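Go through this fold for my students:
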Amino acid sequence: MTVHDPVLAAAHRPAEKHARKPIADDAAMLRAAAELTRTLSTANPAIYWPDFLASALLGYAALAGAILLDNGALAAVSGVVAMLALYRAASFIHELTHMREGALPGFYAAWNLLVGIPLMIPSFMYEEVHTQHHARTRYGTANDPEYLPLALMKPWSLPLFIVVAALAPVGLILRFGVLTPLSLLIPPLRRAVRERYSALSINPAYRRRAPEGDFARRWAWQEAGACVFALALVGSVFLLGWKPLLVYMAVHSGMTVLNQLRTLVAHLWENEGEAMTVTAQYLDSVNVPPPSPFAAIWAPVGLRYHALHHLLPSVPYHALGQAHRRLIATLDTDSPYHRGNYRGMLPLVGKIARSTMAR
């Protein structure tokens, strides 16, 4: 989620730089990745639509249960189910940013209306932001909105990284329910909101450019919808009491913390600002393939193959597992591809934490 915290920004400045030997591109790995996956680039609507709709339906049904059930234990279980299901539904925002126009007619609008606006994370917050993270000359640099050298920062930066995410629902209500209407009346505030509070980024230095053309129109209706929802959510207290709002915020907070934990282990975060080769970007990223039993839960919709996704950003989530198996079976054991695969979340958190404590 968006992180604009001055304390975290201070931790962003590593005390010293260490010379690193540049990693050259591995031609065999890149060639195999391209050749073995040429037939896997088509998004399958028979997978996308049922997966997305079932996740959203289950999430909202469980959220209703968490609000309405009198039994505390059942309400808590229902809240956890709501959090996990809505987290999966929300994760489709990542697919939207890579999907070719017209690949899945209606999916863009459906996702925003059913998930993006009700969770106050409309897709404009990620569009034209995430693709910069994949730019060859931006990844891992100060111009990458989704990169911080977390492994090279102070140890206290990691818990702060998670705590900030827990406050996301409060921040989003303020962003859309307060700043959106105020910024329409105060032009200087509007510029600040657009530049600093309109991106799902983690780089405190990132500033967003003004939208143009069709994207500006999409931004406008999505922001208006999220504004109306945020105001209605707060206004619901006067009709329904505090419980629905607090349960919604608890579920949303849990979902965002889980996503932040996934973000924490999506990369090794060891780059100090230099441009990197594609192979270096891959090795700074993480796959958690089977048999890891829980990765499909905390890294859903193909996010468990994040390193592979950096090699093949156009391959849809449902084909990444097959692409991974083809590469594992084809590439020699000394290929860099094998070094991008890890066992699970906890070993990765430990690895990054140890790196921060060694600074």
